[in-house]
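Bench notes, afternoon.
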Amino acid sequence: MTDTDPRTVLVIGGGASGNAMTILLRRAGLAVDLIEAKPDWNATTGSGITLQGNALRVLRELGVWEKVSACGFPYTSLGMTAVDGTLLFLKEDMKTGGEDLPATLGMQRPQLQQILIDAVRASGATVRLGTTAENLEQDANGVSVWFSDGTEGRYDLVIAADGVHSTTRVAIGIPDTSEPTGMAIWRTPAPRPESVTRTDLTYGGPAYIAGYTPTGENTIYAYVVEACRERGSIDSSAFADEMRRLTEQYGGAWPEISKSITDPEKVNYTWFRQLLVEGSWHRGRVVLVGDAAHCCPPTFAQGAAMSLEDASVLAELLTSGRPWDEELFKAYYERRVPRVRTVVDASVQLGQWQLDGVLDADVPGLIGRTMAVLKELP
């Protein structure tokens, strides 16, 4: 970078994309402030996460792959089973991150977040938790920001990584909002049955989809997908009972898994949502990454991967020596949007087939075609 290039960055949001942006920009010598609304930095939130090779490739770029590998459970195939547990189809997972990385790795989501938190801390970035950006005013040279703790700052660039309900997206005048897809998911961590060594999915039965993913030697996360219900209609104290009711008719490993679903505080219920901001992912010197720009149902397990890829591509452009101008932000959008659109559309399609009752849907074919796109570098 030249002496006239911008060097101060505010990252709003400490999830996967915000943490990755911070690590990469600090590595390049930029001054980075990261603010996160949650006082605990979301360090204990979530049950499990499935990371395919293209996500692992970015985690390696961040320098955290060895720690991720030590915590996670790698595997190479995806099984599709009947309601009684009979294996119907076994598909070898494509190595979308290259031959030197596992095809897929499951891990506990809080462990991944803690690894990224540690890397952000080690990067030397300034971190403020329990803090939000209350107001932004920008001009041709940068952005002035007023914070919820009463302080203010001046930055050459603001990166909005504040999630699907991004207040920054609204503040800069981008009207796009996420929409429910009509499906919802129950998720919980559970002990790993010895037979569970990969993701298995069952389409149909008491729910639209039932599945599980190993997240470590002794853990999995299990999930069932059904039609959306009003959250107020479900007493949170009955979450475990409700998830167990939905899973207890499935065979294979499910009887053992269902017995372990007893703690309602460990069960999460979330609606599937979709979003793809069109036109551009920036306004002036404020740019969106991750779920602030796009989100999709977890049917392809690519949400975190797309967010991490956003951070990798944007950091590459910002540290390339180019001016931080409209052309650079346009290049970021144009490079990312075709790939993200493929994932969003395919993720929604898998669910829509279930909602529409399509019995002969080519699920393996759609998965294969989408994974082939993801094998290419972002």
